[in-house]
Write a structure and sequence with these properties.
Strand order of the largest sheet: 3-2-1-4-5-7-6
Structural class: alpha/beta
Largest sheet: 7 strands, mixed
CATH topology: Rossmann fold
Strand content: 15-25%
Oligomer: single chain
Order of helices and strands: HHHEHEHEEHEHHEE
Number of domains: 1
Number of helices: 8
CATH superfamily: Vaccinia Virus protein VP39
Helix content: 40-55%
Bound molecules: S-adenosylmethionine
Length: 219
């Protein structure tokens, strides 16, 4: 059972919250080839998105994990707030990156503890596909749009990606668990309801990944 306070599988949450799980997630990005590729591609896309929007005053990065994107995001703003549901991730991140106007907070991306439009840009990488229900995935998006004054940069797992279509076959044939997806048109519709327009939405890879990275700007 998942809800707003425990929105992903308890075993996954426990893993991210344990010192071993947090260190393992960090080590994956240093050792595993597919993680290194996706990290490189995400950085390239982020750099492109920031070229379009320019430098901003404040960014909220939620969830920040161990701070994989901390240095890159800090180079595009004056003040960076790093947040995560996992105390352990926040501690690890702070240990490695606590300098030059970076702030740390334990927070849920489903009930973000900041007022409306508190940050120029709100960034949320690799959380949506962990959220177990459509309702929570949409609540996550609405919270990002509520707290962003100008821009939201967010990843989601696309329902229309090749990877998800293949998974759907395996769901039917082999009883595999469905992916936690969002339809791209639904993401756009929620953005519009919240006063944002989609500027860019690039797949991480056409084959092998269903993740999309979207850039939305307040109208
Ligand atoms: C796959 S990691 C992504 C971390 C980082 N954004 C990155 O791309 O490296 C998912 C993170 O989401 C955090 N998390 C899980 N549920 C959360 C929630 N409701 N609010 C904020 N963070 C959450 C986990 O603790 C974990 O650090």
């Amino acid at each position: 059972m998942t809800n707003v306070h425990a929105p992903m599988q308890p075993s996954k949450l426990q893993n991210y919250n344990s010192a071993r799980g947090a260190e393992a997630y960090k080590a994956d990005y240093q050792k595993k080839l597919h993680r290194k590729w996706s990290d490189k591609r995400e950085r390239a896309l982020l750099a492109r998105y920031f070229q379009r929007i320019g430098k901003v005053d404040t960014i909220l990065d939620l969830p920040c994990g161990h701070g994989r994107l901390s240095d890159l995001l800090r180079s595009h703003c004056q003040r960076l707030v790093e947040g995560d549901w996992s105390f352990t991730m926040v501690q690890l991140n702070q240990r490695d990156h606590d300098r030059d106007h970076r702030h740390y907070v334990r927070a849920s991306a489903l009930e973000i503890p900041f007022k409306d439009q508190a940050f120029d840009a709100v960034v949320s990488f690799r959380l949506s596909h962990h959220l177990e229900t459509q309702e929570l995935r949409e609540q996550h998006l609405r919270e990002l749009f509520r707290t962003a004054k100008k821009h939201v940069i967010v990843t989601w797992f696309s329902a229309t990606s090749l990877k998800n279509m293949l998974r759907q076959l395996r769901v039917k044939i082999a009883g595999k668990k469905p992916k936690n997806v969002l339809r791209n048109d639904r993401v756009r519709a929620i953005a519009e309801q919240c006063g944002f327009r989609q500027q860019l939405a690039k797949p991480l890879f056409l084959i092998g990944s269903g993740h999309v990275l979207g850039l939305f700007t307040r109208e």
